C-alpha cells in the first residue's frame, strides 16, 4: 500500500503497489479517488472501453487499423470534438459515428447490397 495524490482534487489516495499494474501511480490514484472530476474521468474511460468493444463487434471483419480509427473517432465524439463522422470503408460498407442530443454516441454500420447492369 502506498499513497498518491489525485491530480484533480489533490487528495491523497491509497494505491496498491502492484508491480503488474502498468498504470502510473498518478493514474491509479485517480482511479481510486471518488471526487467529481475523477468520477467523470473514470466514466469517460469506461465509455471508450465499451465503445471499442461495440466497434469490434459491429465491424468484426475490418482490419485492426480501421477498428483503431473508428475507436479514435468515438473518443473524439465523446470529447465533443465533432458531431459526427462518416467513412466509406469499402464499396459496400459505411461507418458512421455520431453524437446524439442526449449525449449518447451512436455507432452505425450500413452494408449496401447492389445489383445492376449496364447494357
Ligand atoms: Zn480526486
Proportion in β-strands: 15-25%
Helix content: 25-40%
Oligomer status: single chain
H/E topology pattern = EEHHHEEE
Biggest β-sheet strands, sense, barrel: 3 strands, antiparallel
Low-confidence stretches: none
| Strand segment count | 5
Count every helix, treating DSSP H or I runs of 4 or more residues as helices: 3
Cα-based radius of gyration, to the nearest Å? 20 Å
How far is it from the N-terminal to the C-terminal residue, by CA? Answer: 76 Å
Present as ligands are: zinc ion
Model description:
- It is a single chain.
- This protein has 119 residues and is an alpha+beta fold.
- It has three helices and five strands, in the order E-E-H-H-H-E-E-E.
- A three-stranded antiparallel β-sheet has the order 3-4-5, with helices on one face.
- A hairpin with a 4-residue loop joins strand 3 (84-88) and strand 4.
- Helix 2 packs antiparallel against helix 3.
- The chain is elongated, with a radius of gyration of 20 Å.
- The structure holds zinc ion.
- Zinc ion binds at residues 6, 8-9, 11, 33, 35, 38.
